Amino acid sequence: MNKPLNITQKPKLTKKGQETRSRIIVAAAELMYEQGVARTTIEDVQHKANISSSQMYHYFKEKKELVLEVISYQTSKVIGNHRRYLSDLDSFEALNAWRDFIVDIQIKRNCEGGCPLGSLASELVEINTEAHQEIMSSFFEWEDSIRKGLRYMLNRGELNSNADPDKLALALLAALQGGLLLTQVRRDPEPIIIALDTMIEHINSFKKI
Known about the structure:
The chain has helices at residues 15-35, 42-49, 53-59, 63-86, 92-108, 116-124, 129-155, 165-186, 190-204. It is mainly alpha-helical. The relative contact order is 0.11. GO terms for molecular function: DNA binding.
């Protein structure tokens, strides 16, 4: 006799099942980024992912489960893109390359959409405790990624001993998020350019001579 499946244990997915589940998450992430979480219905996701309602229910019993997966997906995507620059942040050239990467994205998007994680945060942190915790962890991870890069610069001798990677990382992330929001509101890249350039100039004041 087969051992009964524990109801709290998720069944292992086949390769096709994993692909379908991933397609649902990506479709939901794109829709929630474009039109917001509240305005994105399960039916919207089904249509975009080209699946049936029974398939949707098989992978996600409730919308809140899907929202948490979208947060995880956007975290991996956003921080993964930034980490390409931050993991090798051992020079001011690398820091400026990261700045150019961010500005270039906004220009290509016509300054629409803002930060995927920031957009989720603005909608969810006050109304969804689980989502709040996930988003907070995502921003801590992003902050830590910046901190590691700056600490690497300090250890490599790019920054003097007065530099505080913890404070600089938090300030840089705050400047990034505020700059992205104002760039979205104004449909103008100037806010993100000024925010990042000002912070980089401040970090440059700790440059070891």
